[in-house]
Amino acid sequence: MLRVGDFLRRTRLSPEALRRYGDRGLLAPSRVDRHTGYRWFAPAQVARARLVGLLRRPACRRPGCGRWSTSSRPTGWPRSTAGGATSRTTWRAGGRSSAPCTGDSPATTTPPEAPVHDVALRTTDELTLLTTQRRLTVEELGAFVPDAARALEEHLAASGATRAGALRVVYHGMVTADSDGPVEVAVPFTGTVRPTGQLAVRRQPAGREAVTVLTRAEAEYPRLLDAYDAVARWCDAAGLARIGSPVEVYLTGRDVGPGEPHLEVAWPVS
C-alpha cells in the first residue's frame, strides 16, 4: 500500500487534484485508517490515476469518457505537451487502439505494434540555466511554452549572453485540467545574466540521465507517452532510480520532417 505522498510522487498528481478525484468518487483510497484518518492507495491505482488525469483534458469532458475509464488502463504518462497535438488522436490503452475522447465505441481493429525506443545512459555536464516556471493547467500550456522561450531568448540577447544548448521543458508534475505542474522552461547559457521579473538563473549539477531520441512524428501527443514509458521501464530494468523531474530537450524546431530527430525525453537517474 502507498501512503499519500508516495502515491502523489508515483502519479505526479497535485494534492488538490487527488482530493477532487476522491470527492467525486473517481479515485477513492483503498484504505482509510479509522483512528488517524490516514489514506492508503494500492499500487494498482497508479494506472487509474493517470487515466483519470488524461480523461480530464478538455476534449474528453463528454458522455462516455467516465464509462470508458472504468475498464481501460493507460500505457503512458498522461500529460499534455507544448506541441499542441489534439486529444482526439487515437492512443493505445490496455493493449488495444481506442478513441476515448470522441464518445465513439472503442475500435476493434488489431492494435499497432508498440514503438521501440532505444534508451541510453549518458553523463551530463553542469549547466547554467535561465529559466521561468509557472503552475498552469492544460488549457494554458500551449501558449506558455513558446511565450516563455521567446522571453528567455530576448533576455539572453539583451544581456549579451550566449545560448549554450537546446531548449528544455521540465515537467515537475502532471499537467491536466486539474493538476497544474509546475512546468519550467529553461535555456542553458554562458556569460552573465541577471534575474529579472519571472526569469531566474539556476545551476544544474552534473550527473547522469536516461535518454531516448524521438523523431518529429514520434514526438506528437499521445505517441510521446510511449517514450516516457520506455525510459521508465529501461531504468527499472537497469536498477537505476529515477530522480528529479523528466525533461523534454528540443533539438530542432517543429518545421523538420516527420522522420527527423526532434526531441529527447530524458530522466535524471542515480
From TrEMBL:
Residues 1-57 form the HTH merR-type domain. GO terms for biological process: regulation of DNA-templated transcription. GO terms for molecular function: DNA binding. Residues 64-116 are annotated as: Disordered. It holds the Pfam family MerR_1. This is MerR HTH family regulatory protein. It comes from Geodermatophilus africanus.
